[in-house]
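Researcher: I need the complex structure. Ligand is adenosine-5'-triphosphate. Inputs:
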Amino acid sequence: MLKYIIKRILMLIPVLIGVSIIVFLIMRVFSPDPAPIVLGQHATQEAQEAWRQAIGLNDPIYLQYWHYLKGALTGDLGTSYYTKIPVVKEIMARFPATIELAVVAIILASLFGILIGVVSAVKKNSIFDNAGMLLALIGVSMPIFWLGILLIILFSGTLHWLPSNGRIDPLLQPAHVTGFYLIDSLIAGDSGDFVDALRHLVLPAAALAMYSMAIITRMTRSSMLDTLGQDFIRTARAKGIAEGRVIFRHALRNGLIPIVTVIGLQLGSLLGGAVLTETVFSWPGIGAYTVTCILKSDFPVVQGVVLLVAAIFVLMNLIVDVIYAFLDPRIKYAKKEV
Amino acid sequence: MLLEVKNLSTEFKLKRGVVKAVDDISFSIDKGEILAIVGESGSGKSVASLSIMGLLQKPGRISGGEILFKSQDLTKLSRKQLQKIRGNQISMIFQEPMTSLNPVWRIKDQIMESIRTHMQVSQKEALARTIEMLDTVGIPSAAQRANDYPHQMSGGMRQRVMTAMALACEPELLIADEPTTALDVTIQAQILELLYRMREKFRMAVLLITHDLGVVSEAADRVIVMYCGKIMEEADVRTLFTRPLHPYTVGLLQSIPQIDEDSDKRLYMIKGMVPNPLNMPPGCPFSDRCDHSMARCTKEMPQLREISGHKVRCFLYDEAKEGELGAK
Ligand SMILES: Nc1ncnc2c1ncn2[C@@H]1O[C@H](COP(=O)(O)OP(=O)(O)OP(=O)(O)O)[C@@H](O)[C@H]1O
Ligand code: SF4
Ligand SMILES: [Mg+2]
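Model: Output:
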């Protein structure tokens, strides 16, 4: 198992190299020239040319990539064209916000998704099932920014229950330890900060969770319908054990693999940054930031984010695969495989 | 009587019509008795046993009759009350050993779950009992195999595990629904032998369901022959094998392969097929396959008649009085 995990992590290297080549090319071929954007409309041709020369954009593309790769191996992903701050720092300043939002959203989505999915499957074709499936349909089809705006209008605008933008009251900023405000405020022992950070999280997390919840609900329902019809469920019932135990310990436990798979994929894509949600709720995460950088042709930042997202996806898949082996004793990662 | 089934009917309401899978059957089982139910595929054997266990799934429904277990009508019990009886006083072994165990739990956990549900014992005692049961059903080095997952065992071994699980709480009635059908011939004999031995050891009654009359002759005390959800004949095992009355039973008996027979002699097969349950012939359900079919057979349903403990549903015996019964 350990061997398998190490092998899979080593596989990350070619994946990242491939991804970096692709994004490197795409940025340089399809993005507008960054020089006029960085230096301003009125910069002279000469000034622009000098900047390009200095930054290395005039070198042949393979040479540019070679320099990038050399830097990357030492943990240097370049600096932002605009802020002149190292890309790694720029990302680290925003990534915790994205992680915090994504993790809270996926927890909400999984809890409600699995619960609704299980009940829908057990009470197939009942009113509850129909309501649950309608909710899931709304969840997958409702545009997330629209849902976000509705939530803001209702809970912030009309009811004044919850804040609608930012991660925390600007006056409350907890001491920066992990970058996760929920954790930082707990470390600082400040319950006021914690509650405020939590209140800021509710609406964006709910908006973000909706889609994932819908997907998880559907997957849970179909997986449960499948396992509930299996012979061993009849055996479990024949043993006289309580129905709740039959459903959760036998049916759900056997149906978890596809559910864990979608949760993993959803978490992976949420960690890549929820652009629309972050924009609507002014959430200072990686998604909205990256879009700005793409529009501004800030090549190093975009490359760095894409690499990060690729690594997250690969690792998420690995984690899901490792969980499989714990969930199902029949799955063994033999030495031959990979 | 341990179990008395009275006029039990079970039906499936489907879009295309109603399937009467079990149609007005009555029988009883005494303490320690082995009663066999035989019949071809689709005759309603499994549905009858699931009805007794209260394990029918939608759209199946008991539409009439009583199931008296120790004088208590199981059809009137709540789910909670039934759970107390299932796996405890009445247990069941299924036809499919390969899929009837939960693939993600160790077999010891599955057996212990049964024990801990019905008996007030510690984890440790439950484990000890589990290993003892595995040993009893003939699993070698039971203490180690208890840690296996189902996929690490053969079909025969899994059926032994199922048996250990079913017997763990010493039930008074064991329902075995074709426990050997999915197994190799040699393993079949071993499992039957095991059931027989367990019956002796635990003094329980067994409802043995099978489509194989060969199995019946070795194990059962009494036999019920079912066809299309109805009881066609009922007799003690010796009577049934020496003096079968119903043409269907005769056909079944003739289709048992005989070892000493000439190998080139073709095996007898009852002609035709089991009728579609949604489209039953009027009258006797066997009429379109029966060699003795008379005009009356396709119009009226023969009644189940009892003559000195031997029951038969066939017009051939309609006029028969005691002493006159004999195969026609
Ligand atoms: N879930 C179901 N839905 C509809 N009809 C069903 C269902 N289960 C059983 N039946 C019907 O009930 C009848 C009896 O089925 P049952 O499974 O009891 O037969 P069986 O005697 O056990 O046969 P086998 O030897 O194949 O196990 C069949 O005709 C079948 O069409
Ligand atoms: S009632 Fe008629 S058709 Fe039916 S088994 Fe008897 S003889 Fe055959
Ligand atoms: Mg059956």
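Model: Summary of the prediction. Chain B touches chain A at residues 53, 55, 79, 82-88, 91-92, 94, 96, 99-104, 113-114, 117-118, 149, 151, 162, 165-166 (CB under 8 Å).
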